[in-house]
Amino acid sequence: MLDATPDTLVFPQRVFDMYSQDSAGGALMSLKLIFVLREPIEREFARYKVKAADYQRATDKRNGWFSDVIDVDGSLMTFDQYTLEVLRVNIKEKLGFYTSGLYATHLKAWARLFDRNSQLLVLNYDEIRQEPSKMQWRIETFLGKKFVGGELSASDTLEIIPQRAIRILEPLFRKPNEELYNFLRDVQGPSMEQRPFPRFQQRSTRSNTTGLVLPNVLLIGAQKAGTTAVSRFTHCSWDYTYFIEGVFYFRGCGSHDQRLQVAEWLFSNGVCNPKSFEGEPSFYKKEVQFFDNDQRYKQGIEFYAKRFEYCVDEGLDEFILDATPNTIEFPQRVHETYSNPAAGDLKNKLRLILILREPIERELSAYNHKVFDYKEAEAKEQRGWVNGTWYRDVVRKEDGTIKTFTEYCEFIKDYMVKGARSYTVYRYVEHLKAWTTLFDRSQLLILSYDELYKKPSKVQGRIEQFLGTTFYGSLAKLNESGGDSKVKELPESAIRVLEPLLRDLNEELYDFLRDNPGPVMEQRPFPRFDGLSSNSTKK
Question: Which residues contact 154 (CB under 8 A, 6 or more apart)?
């Protein structure tokens, strides 16, 4: 008599308790246990396909054993998404049936309760695929009986499993598989069992990682152009100094937009984000602020790389992203870092993404953010003129009140004209000329903030084509709302202050992008920045 419930593997104690009861007679000692072990990733994929098929047939699609392959909107997850959101989390936490691929853990428990030599036969699924007659012989010998009426058979083809899922799952099973091979070598079973137990066929196409682990995608800016989505912070770490007219100032938190934007969308799709360390602000998990931060940059490539080492260990190294928006201003530092021999050949494989926003709008967004942070500081009684705050330039030094946006523009215009380091981001064309002398133009994808604002699905398609992949989910439309204190329309007086400074630079930008086309998915011609008055309510 046979019971072929596959998930029995996870419950050795229950089986032992059942067969140890008096009513079971002598069944405990005569029980035969057969385990067929399949390469764990392939088994998870096969299990997913069965769940997906059952989901498609079900009338009640919310309840059933397949519920974990259903997305929040009721649709069926792809295997990549299922791997990232369900398997990765539950296997790491060793929860319930998700541990069924951790074979050694379960076999050790079975071997403590039953006789390994006479009661436990461990078989390899690959043998069914390759030589089913041999597996049939092993089973017949183990049971002491010859069966008639057909032979074992199985397909000899391997499952085609998405590589992204393999890259995520392979590190989770690598150590448990080695533990399995060692256990079966040291604790041998009946004589008909394969010895040594064959290793599972390698699934991953990942090449051996040599050298340091660095991002292969940089979202280089521009600040306040939709590059990142980070929750509003009430504290910042001011650790970057620069010098203006005899005063040391400290660089602030960077771009912390409060909306779902490109970086957040990529991270949610399993693109590996930086790791932050003890004592560091949490926004370093999105943007390392390495290239634009003198003190951090001086610590060298190893300091930068150690934030991404875990990406390999967790199988998330297909795409590794640093989304520091001010990187646009530091092409030479990026080039020097990726030219380091420790970076291998990554310099030529690096992908750079830049989102360009109309410069005065960008300043309005930065102004609103600075005003918000200043008011937050006031609410916490951290008021007053403090040189070491990034919002210092929106505050009147004499009385601590907030400048109008036009006054702010008058203030920063002086520093723009002087070429002060912290006010050069708007000179897009000059930065792009520097980048394209150091990196091939095909490595740089330039996107329009206006398209991100109006048609995010098109931007999503461009990024996916640029990276050569498809991500699940959709890039959300930018949030147009704002607090009551925000300036939502560009004052004509502010436009008159900055527009003459920007007009020629913008024209030069359009000419440069026309004469130096980028990858095929880029907009051609690059769209001129929309009229200021029509876009001034964007965040």
Answer: 128, 129, 132
Residues facing 356 on adjacent strands: 448
The rounded distance, in Å, linking the Cα atoms of 92 and 213 is 22
Q: Tokens at residue 203, please?
A: 């699934």
> DSSP states of 150-180 as a string?
-------SPP---HHHHHHHHHHHHHHHHHH
SS3 content of the chain, % helix, strand, coil (to 5): 50, 10, 45
Exposure string (b/e) for 15-49, b if CB count within 10 Å is 16 or more? Answer: bbeebeeeeeeeebeebebebbbbbbbbbbbebbe
Segment-wise mean pLDDT, segments of 10 residues, the chain, 539 residues: 91 95 87 96 94 90 86 89 92 88 95 96 91 92 86 66 87 93 96 94 55 91 51 28 31 36 84 90 88 94 94 87 92 96 92 93 87 80 60 83 90 82 82 96 95 90 94 70 60 90 93 96 92 47
The DSSP line for 200-252 is PPP---PPPP-S----SEEEEE-TTSS----PPPS-----EEEEETTEEEEE-
